[in-house]
Amino acid sequence: MGSLTATPQGRGAVSATAKSVGVAGGFTRARAPQPGDHWSGCNDARAVGTAPIYEGEPGYRPEMDGDSDGIACEPYRG
Fold first, then answer.
1. Using 50, 70 and 90 to split pLDDT, how confident is the model at 19?
2. Contact 23, 2 (CB under 8 A)
3. Average pLDDT of the chain to the nearest whole number
4. 73 near 57, Cβ under 8 Å?
5. Domain spans of the chain, in order of start
6. Does residue 2 have a pLDDT over 90?
7. Contact status, residue 72 vs residue 64, Cβ threshold 8 Å
8. Phi-psi map region of 33: left, alpha, beta (phi>0 left; psi -120 to 50 alpha)
9. Which of 9, 12, 52, 77 has its CA 20 to 30 A from that of 19?
10. First vs last C-alpha separation in the chain
11. Which of 37, 16, 20 is nearest to 52 (CA)?
12. Calpha distance 14→17 (Å, rounded)
């Protein structure tokens, strides 16, 4: 018996599962910010999975950073 991570396909499957769990749990973004990104607001950035956006990343704008902490479009806190 071998390890699932012993093959490229196995490593890919583990990576894909980990990413989907991270996105679903709000621990990671579904899509990294890309050069040229410009969102009309945080709802748009969240809809494509790019939020939160950190200062210095494509798409970051101070007007989208409500508390001026360098993180725009932070997740909702309940």
1. low
2. no
3. 83
4. no
5. 1-29, 31-78
6. no
7. yes
8. beta
9. 77
10. 45
11. 37
12. 5
72: β partners? 53
Q: Which of 32, 35, 37 is nearest to 19 (CA)?
A: 32
- Return the ∠ at Cα 52 (arms to 23 and 62), rounded to 5°: 175
| 11, amino acid identity | R
Q: How far apart are CA 44 and CA 26, in angstroms?
A: 16
Is the predicted pLDDT of residue 59 greater than 90, yes or no? yes
7 confidence band (pLDDT: 50, 70, 90):
confident
More confident: 36 or 76: 36
What pLDDT, on a 0 to 100 scale, did the predictor assign at position 20?
66
Distance of CA 24 to the CA centre of its chain: 11
Contacts of 77 (CB under 8 A, 6+ apart): none
Interior CA angle at 59 toward 18 and 44, to 5°?
A: 70
